[in-house]
Amino acid sequence: MQKQLIVTCKELIDKLEKENKLSYEEYLYLIKNRDKCANYLYDKASKMREKIYGNKIYIRGLIEFSNYCKNDCLYCGIRRSNNRAERYRLTKEEILECAEEGYKLRLSYICYAKWRRYVFYRRNTNNYNKRNKIKIS
Ligand code: SF4
To answer: Could you tell me the distance, in angstroms and rounded to a whole number, from the CA of residue 77 to the centre of ligand 1?
Structure first.
């Protein structure tokens, strides 16, 4: 029985690696049984990290240009129902100022975040151009 469970966890992790998604029930199964195949998952994650990043360290800058959110995740301090959160929204000029600072600090990535939408700009590619890549509507 125990062996069968581990095989199932591994199969799900392999499926996730191959297809980049699982069903709700499959995720639930993995979460409920995470202790039983955690080492396999860590090993897979480590190999994936090594494949993408090697042993280099990248430092990412995150510009949260607004803390207004339409969602209501219970764990989050800026969820919409928290009426004690002090709200802000940066202007385009303020965002560009933050990006300039990140560029000077030689950050590998600059990421603009609002709600669940993230936009990444990678510094260490041949076509990195801070002025062309920063487009804010
Ligand atoms: S979507 Fe993100 S910012 Fe919005 S409430 Fe959930 S965790 Fe917080």
So the answer is: 8
